[in-house]
């Protein structure tokens, strides 16, 4: 199947410049760009009449199985029920222009395979399986009065508990065995977990390094949930490649990001959404009280990181019915960043983090033919990407989605 787009303004995200040209897709890839391109018989041809064309977007922190903000309840749901919800959530993400997403715990090889085979409509899915947590950590959803734990090896819970370097090593190997693109560890407390503190550090340095060693042995990497500078800095010193959230980083954190060639994945929109709508979508009262601890600090952390030259990646971390706000992250980030820099975070920089530079997040020949046709210039108006209504066409793997 082939597709020819004529007379588009094609964005080179790296340089931030447009070129008026045609773009031809074949066999799921961008075959060529240029003027006056021809295509074989049977090719679908669209005249874009000067519309703006950008690479398909990448959201590097999603939870496609999170049909509710009550994350602890997901593990006890039937896998078939979770899958049905995930298919709906993923389809919505594709409609919003996200052609690749990195799941930060919950999704597995089954959903990724289903999407790749066309059984589920949605973005390409880079998954980590279950996130690794210490007892009482961010993926231990037991209340204080619960003793027994079920890590739901068959089912769709978001995490598994592993204590001690050997147990962490075994858990990481198990997720890698199942095809994980990266390993997720919980290196600090969080909003959705019932018994930990936001300002806690989680996992010893030996445990963090065990996860890193196993990921690197498999040519993969580790992403760490972490909020405070203390937690972030420990994770970076342990060799972790991407920090998720990082709302309370300091200047030392910035130095460590640069020294260790690491990435920061802020998720500003989820705190905005949880504050506005969390209670309606199942967020427990105890978790609601934690939101204020990280809400105000997020923009300041983003500004500090951007000013210091940290590589920033687009992420949203939305839950339940709040997934519909996925594009609003563009508007929030543009309060401190230029639109081109936010777009890079959702294309070229995200691709680099995922180890897929040149494959996604670009309109270069040879890349996956994932792109958006927009009715306005996203570099002139941050609201263009913040509002999916500006998307005229989503092209995924060379076909109109």
TrEMBL record:
InterPro entries: Amidohydro-rel (IPR006680), Metal-dep_hydrolase_composite (IPR011059), Metal_Hydrolase (IPR032466), Metallo-dep_Hydrolase (IPR051781), OTAase-like (IPR057744)
Keyword Hydrolase: yes
Domain Amidohydrolase-related residue range list: 53-398
Keywords per UniProt: Hydrolase
Top-rank taxon: Bacteria
UniProt keyword Hydrolase present: yes
GO molecular function: hydrolase activity, acting on carbon-nitrogen (but not peptide) bonds
Coiled-coil positions: none
Name of the featured protein: Amidohydrolase family protein
């Amino acid at each position: 199947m082939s597709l020819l787009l004529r007379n588009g303004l094609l964005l080179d995200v790296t340089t931030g410049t447009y070129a008026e040209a045609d773009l031809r897709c074949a066999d799921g890839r961008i075959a060529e760009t240029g003027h006056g391109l021809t295509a074989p018989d049977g090719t679908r041809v669209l005249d874009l009449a000067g519309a703006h064309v950008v690479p398909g977007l990448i959201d590097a922190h999603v939870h496609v199985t999170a049909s509710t903000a009550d994350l602890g309840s997901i593990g006890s749901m039937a896998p078939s029920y979770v899958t049905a919800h995930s298919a709906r959530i993923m389809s919505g993400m594709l409609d919003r222009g996200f052609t690749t997403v990195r799941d930060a715990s919950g999704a597995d090889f089954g959903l990724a395979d289903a999407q790749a085979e066309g059984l589920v409509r949605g973005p390409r899915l880079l998954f980590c399986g279950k996130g690794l947590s210490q007892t009482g950590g961010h993926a231990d959803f037991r209340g204080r009065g619960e003793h027994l734990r079920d890590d739901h090896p068959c089912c769709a819970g978001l995490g598994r508990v592993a204590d001690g370097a050997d147990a962490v090593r075994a858990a990481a190997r198990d997720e890698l065995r199942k095809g994980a693109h990266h390993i997720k560890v919980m290196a600090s407390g969080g909003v959705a977990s019932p018994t930990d503190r936001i300002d806690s550090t989680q996992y010893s340095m030996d445990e963090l390094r065990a996860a890193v060693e196993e990921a690197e042995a498999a040519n993969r990497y580790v992403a760490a949930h972490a909020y405070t500078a203390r937690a972030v800095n420990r994770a970076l010193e342990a060799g972790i490649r991407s920090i998720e959230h990082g709302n309370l980083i300091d200047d030392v954190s910035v130095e460590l990001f640069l020294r260790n060639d690491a990435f920061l994945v802020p998720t500003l929109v989820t705190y905005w959404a949880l504050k506005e709508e969390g209670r309606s979508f199942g967020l427990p009262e105890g978790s609601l009280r934690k939101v204020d601890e990280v809400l105000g600090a997020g923009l300041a952390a983003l500004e500090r990181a951007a000013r210091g030259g940290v590589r920033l990646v687009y992420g949203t971390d939305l839950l339940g019915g709040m997934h519909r706000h996925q594009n609003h992250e563009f508007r929030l980030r543009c309060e401190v960043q230029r639109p081109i820099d936010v777009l890079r975070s959702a294309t070229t920089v995200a691709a680099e983090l995922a180890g897929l530079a040149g494959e996604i997040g670009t309109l270069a020949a040879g890349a996956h033919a994932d792109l958006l046709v927009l009715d306005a210039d996203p570099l002139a108006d941050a609201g263009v990407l913040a509002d999916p209504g500006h998307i005229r066409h989503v092209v995924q793997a060379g076909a109109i989605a």
